[in-house]
Design a protein that fits this description.
This protein is of the alpha/beta class. It has helices at residues 10-18, 24-42, 50-65, 108-115, 158-166, 182-188, 222-232, 278-293, 306-331, 338-345, 352-375, 398-401, 408-411, 441-454; strands at 45-48, 77-81, 119-124, 171-176, 191-194, 214-219, 262-265, 297-300, 378-382, 416-423, 429-436.
Length: 464
């Protein structure tokens, strides 16, 4: 069993831990051994906090033995994208600008995960400040895809995607401004959930674009994402964007039953406005058939062009990112990597009028999606155009050359999960997005979990 511990899901491991059939210490030791063995090939970690992890694991084991079991994350090894503050642990944002930065306070999410009894394995690779990458002129090398180490992980939660896929952490946290949770989920073959804007606190997480940033879990399964979301969801008065809404039991609806659920298929995003690979279209067709076999009612729908959504997201992101970084970019431009610097310099071409018009368009597009979700329980579309490209073929401006399929739901703030739904001929994962009504992550997770239960994609592991 020891050799297989890194392939347990959170749900499986928590059940064993709760019955005291699995030691959190043994589990943590297995993950630290796995990181030592595999991470040099993947560069998923910026910092491994081995001593902290073992201390957390021993504490969890003692608490559980004394009858103080806290819930399904107690004793579970997790890791954080290196834009999440963790008290006493270097948090760099993958940038020379913050190379020696050690926060004295946990981010809200890190504090909640600590309170839930998790074991902190370390900090994970990211594109510089969740924007500039994959870059080779930063303090740490870019993460590599565990399905093929010559390939891109997606960004910007690159290490989070690689670690969750390769069994280097049972759960990770990423951030999503234009797709930075769901893109790595697509390329790395995991489940990546972007909750509703305001559902999860961003306090203590390096900002990129204040009105677009989301924090969320990246895990092997949708069920595991539900368990992590349960721990981190909720109102935080220190996050101006936080919403004070009730937090439901996210695991309760995961019964596999989606009979009668109405699904709106946005085919034109990936087969009309732009054109995905044939493998993606085939995977999407197979997923629709599976959902219909499960009793869902799937109907093709029409929204505004993907190009409208993507342009809206890009203009807002560039303007708001410049507002965050303008002072440091002017004072110490050489402390930023070339890709971050060159991408953000494009912001100077935009005007206040451009930003205002994008914000106006955003409201129109959001209403359009909200109206569609009055007719449907969830929406469905592809997560990407094709399998992960080679790292050395990723353009400096790739996020601007073709509209991101993930960007529309950062514009609307809707909850969206990317789950695997097939593989390319070369063995690289593919995936789809399931999108829901604001603050209805429960239905999004219900559909994702039912699909995962009905297929065997979760049984395929990276060859690394």
């Amino acid at each position: 069993m020891t050799d297989a511990l890194h392939h347990l899901t959170i749900a499986e491991a928590s059940s064993l831990i709760a019955r005291q059939e699995l030691s959190p210490v043994a589990l943590t030791e297995a993950f630290l051994k796995r990181i030592e063995s595999v991470d040099p090939k993947l560069n998923a970690y910026v910092t491994v906090t081995g001593e902290r992890a073992l201390d957390d694991a021993r504490t969890a084991e003692q608490e559980i033995a004394a009858g103080g079991y806290k819930g399904p994350l107690h004793g579970i090894p997790i890791a954080l994208k290196d834009i999440y503050d963790a008290a006493g642990i270097r948090t760099t944002g993958q940038s020379h600008l913050h190379f020696d930065r050690i926060p004295d306070r946990d981010s809200r999410t890190a504090a909640l995960l600590r309170a839930a009894g998790t074991v902190m394995l370390g900090k994970l690779t990211t594109h510089e400040f969740a924007f500039g990458g994959p870059s080779w002129d930063l303090p740490f090398p870019p993460a590599r895809n565990p399905w093929n180490t010559e390939c891109f992980t997606g960004g910007s939660s690159s290490g989070s995607g690689a670690a969750a896929a390769a069994g280097l952490a049972m759960g990770t946290l990423g951030s999503d401004t234009a797709g930075s949770i769901r893109m790595p989920a697509f390329f790395c073959g995991i489940s990546g959930l972007k909750p509703t804007y305001g559902r999860v606190s961003r306090r203590g997480v390096a900002p990129l674009a204040y009105s677009l940033d989301h924090c969320g879990p990246m895990t092997w399964t949708a069920r595991d994402a539900a368990l992590m979301l349960q721990a981190i969801a909720g109102y935080d008065a220190e996050d101006p964007g936080a919403s004070d809404r009730p937090v439901p039991d996210y695991a309760a609806p995961l019964t596999g039953d989606i009979q009668g659920v109405k699904v709106g298929l946005i085919r034109h995003f990936y087969d009309g406005d732009e054109h995905a690979d044939d493998a993606v279209k085939t995977a999407m067709g197979g997923m629709v058939s599976t959902l219909e076999d499960l009793g869902a009612e799937v109907e093709e729908i029409q929204l505004s062009s993907l190009h409208d959504y993507s342009a809206c997201c890009l203009i807002i992101m560039l303007c708001e990112a410049l507002a965050v970084h303008e002072r440091d970019l002017k004072a110490t431009p050489r402390k930023y990597g070339e890709i971050f610097r060159d991408r953000l310099m494009l912001s100077s071409l935009l005007t206040g009028m451009d930003y205002v018009q994008a914000v106006r368009l955003r409201r129109q597009l959001t209403v359009e999606v909200e109206d569609m979700l009055k007719r449907f329980d969830v929406l469905l579309t592809a997560g990407g155009y094709g399998p992960a490209p080679k790292l050395d073929q990723v353009s400096k401006f790739y996020i601007m050359q073709k509209p991101l399929l993930t960007a529309p739901f950062d514009v609307t703030g809707s909850p969206a999960i990317c789950v695997r739904n097939g593989f390319s001929a070369s063995g690289l994962p593919l995936g789809a997005q399931i999108v829901g009504r604001a603050f209805d992550e429960a239905t999004v997770l219900r559909v994702a979990d039912a699909y995962e239960q009905a297929t065997d994609w979760c049984n395929h592991r990276p060859p690394i």
